[in-house]
Amino acid sequence: MEDALRRREFLRRALAAAALPQALAAERARAEPVPPGREGTTSDVWVEVKLGNVAWNLARIRRAAGGRPVMAVLKANGYGHGVAGLARHLAPELHGILVNHPGALSQPDEADFLVRNDVAQALYSAETLGLLRAAGARLGKSPAAHLVVDTGLGRLGVPHREAMRFIETVKGLDVRGTMTTFTYDADFAREQLRAFNAVLAQMRSRRIRAGTVHAAASDAILNLPESHFDMVRPGIMLYGHYPTEAARQKKEIDLRAAATWKARVAYVKTLQPGDTVGYTRAYRAEREETVATLPVGYADGHRPALAGKADVWLNGRRCPIVAPITANHTIVRVPPDLAVKPGDEAELMGPNIPAHELANHAGISVYQMVIGLSAARPRVYVA
Element (H or E) spanning 166, and its range? Predict the structure, then answer.
């Protein structure tokens, strides 16, 4: 029961924040741009989001898509950038915003919320269709939906071979779009495109409304122009990162990372030769040296594997992470000629410590790196 309540509350907050301007008013204080020099002053750890960089990326994506409308994907807390603040600032620039909820619609009150607030639901199952129809009957409104066709990703969506049988049952709903999602396998993605086009052709032949057709996420925007259809649906590229390492090296689109992850130095001390740091004493000072403790750890999204590999940017210099990252702390070695004191700002990820560099050191994708940033830490939006 507790999980169900938590899930429903998440759905309410996420969808309201991303789709309903009036609901976003409650987020205004946290989402307002702040004057330069005051960023992050309310927390020792925060994520600064440069809205100008998001706008830059959006313009380049539009150009790559031949000027087509753009639907922004704000799944996973806006790829770690904060769903409410991004939705508020992006809404005027976009054709739409898609908030991916990881589970299926399962409760009547969830369906009522969607229908009452005119939020389009991803539709691919008879159970969801039944809930939406019942909500529409209770509220006297036609539920809105985007039909989801699974062409081979195998995640969510009605399988393309069975799609028409399901689509023909969707009556009385306001079908605003039809969508699919591609894999990163280039050859298989073309097979997926053929399967999706076959479904669309059947819909046209039977005069079934498809609405806005969209399929191309970041990788397909770059590599599969035939899939751009009526609208493109970028995720990671909107935030300034490339969907694959190959795409990053090729850099067909000039992207600017939007997020800078920051923390304030909590403590500075001098180690003597032989002093150790960490629960397992994994780091031992070979000479007298200065270390700084940052109040950020794996509970915040920092990766333990970065110890001994990655750096932070502190007072204009790279400082190596020397000890295993713990739940709430990261310890870095300070060069002997660098002055550091408690309260100084450190950049853990940003223009000087790129996200892809951290991801490579940690053996993960850039998606995992940015999405892994704790939602509990503030997001500060800088105009």
Answer: helix 163-167
